[in-house]
Design goal:
alpha/beta, Rossmann fold, five-stranded parallel sheet, 5 strands, SGNH_hydro_sf, Lysophospholipase L1-like esterase, Ester_Hydrolysis_Enzymes, SGNH_hydro
Length: 278
């Protein structure tokens, strides 16, 4: 039992070190999500899944604006092209559905961002202006809230402070959703859940899985209080696979990880839009 606790502490120290180094050292190219032509193909060799079916032709397809905000998952850390991680694959999937004629993405992702910091950013003109005109809104947040707890308890780390922070975290999620809805009263909002990057290498340590599952459940329960807001789980994507879905830092998703997140998000978005049309 003592050895297990020691291993848990070691894992969480690694978790903290990776998060801090990613926030301080990792810099993404400044290429906008939609400005594909500025990325030289020789720099990164991308592997794309072949399209099984041709794009659907829809003469009544819409032009839409997507606003994505949150942490490094929105920023796209781990995507070597610097073009927005899951967002660039989601755009392709949504366009292929035939429901949209064109999609413009505004990426407000910030590496290292916590939920309390996102709440403050919602008062900024840049955020309010982008969100006001959004047709769809995507949010990733929470991972750095966990990192903060690790930092504050690094010398005597147990599962207790994470469980104690579950409800306050839920309150912050509620505030984010309420404030976002005040800014934009109509756009569907999609809150994307968290995942445990250590599940592949430390399968016998269940504490982090329990923490992420508990925080995800809290987010889901908050989302259920709102109309036109959807919670999208991604935790299982990284649990139920033997494939490597992590970037070389063993923390953020790699290209394949972002592709699978995009596929999951696309499924939930299509379901939500179909329901809203009924």
């Amino acid at each position: 039992m003592k050895n297990k606790k020691s291993m848990i502490v070691s894992i969480l120290i690694v978790f903290l070190a990776i998060a801090i180094s990613s926030a301080l050292v990792y810099t993404q190219p400044s290429t906008p999500v939609d400005n594909v032509n500025q990325v030289q193909k020789a720099q990164v060799r991308e592997v794309h899944q072949p399209l099984l079916d041709p794009p659907v032709l829809n003469l009544f397809a819409d032009d839409i604006k997507i606003v994505a905000m949150g942490d490094s998952l929105t920023k796209g850390v781990g995507d070597p092209t610097g073009r927005g991680g899951y967002l660039r694959f989601l755009k392709k999937d949504l366009l292929h559905s035939g429901n949209f004629n064109s999609i413009n993405i505004t990426n407000l992702g910030v590496t290292g961002l916590r939920s309390d910091e996102l709440i403050k950013r919602l008062d900024r003109e840049k955020y309010r202006e982008a969100l006001t005109s959004a047709d769809q809104i995507y949010i990733t947040i929470g991972g750095n809230d966990l990192v903060k707890i690790m930092y504050n308890n690094i010398m005597s780390l147990t599962i207790t402070p994470f469980m104690a922070e579950t409800e306050p975290y839920g309150k912050r999620i509620e505030t984010i959703l309420k404030e976002t809805r005040k800014i934009n009263k109509a756009a569907p909002i999609f809150l994307i859940g968290m995942y445990n990057p250590f599940s592949k290498f430390f399968k016998d340590i269940d504490e982090m899985n329990t923490i992420v599952k508990t925080w995800d459940s809290e987010s889901r329960s908050i989302v259920q209080q709102f109309d036109n807001i959807t919670f999208i789980p991604i935790r299982d994507i990284f649990l139920d696979t033997s494939d490597n879905l992590l970037y070389e830092d063993n923390f953020h998703p790699n290209v394949d990880g972002y592709k699978r997140i995009a596929t999951r998000v696309d499924t939930y978005v299509e379901q939500a839009l179909d329901t809203s049309d009924e």
